[in-house]
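Data deposition worksheet. Section B asks for the primary sequence of the deposited chain exactly as it was used as input, without tags or linkers unless they were present during the calculation. Section C holds the resulting structure in token form. Section D is free text for depositor observations; keep each observation to a single sentence. Incomplete worksheets are returned to the depositor.
Section A, Depositor: J.P.
Section B:
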Amino acid sequence: MTVRAAGCVVFRRGTSGSIEYLLTHRPRYDDWSHPKGKRDPGETDEQTARREIEEETGFTGPLGAELSPSLYVDHKGRDKVVRYWLMEPDGGGFEPNDEVDEIRWLGLDEAIELVSYDRDRQLLVEAAALLAS
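Section C:
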């Protein structure tokens, strides 16, 4: 069985035109990553991405360009596919919760340094290239 999940590389534009990326800290895993989560029965991947971003970060917004999916084996030994989109929030706000206890908005270099997984670093590089074009 393949686990399906979806999430976003969430970003915002600073006043100087610089771009900051949102990273989430999950206390359960003590890691820094992009917000994402498993698909519920009957949901599309796009619905999953929007729901998970709102549940984990409190932010809402439209999905932008789709990024490359992440394919890996999860901590339970199952194949996992995670689809990602860009998202620039247009509403909401963060409140610490059971899944995510802290967020950070960081420039690209700082985000690449902090993120816990190589696949998430690759997503940041891909997102930055799309946003620069």
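Section D:
The chain is about 25% helix and 40% strand.
The beta strands are 2-13, 19-26, 31-33, 36-38, 59-60, 63-66, 70-73, 79-87, 91-92, 102-106.
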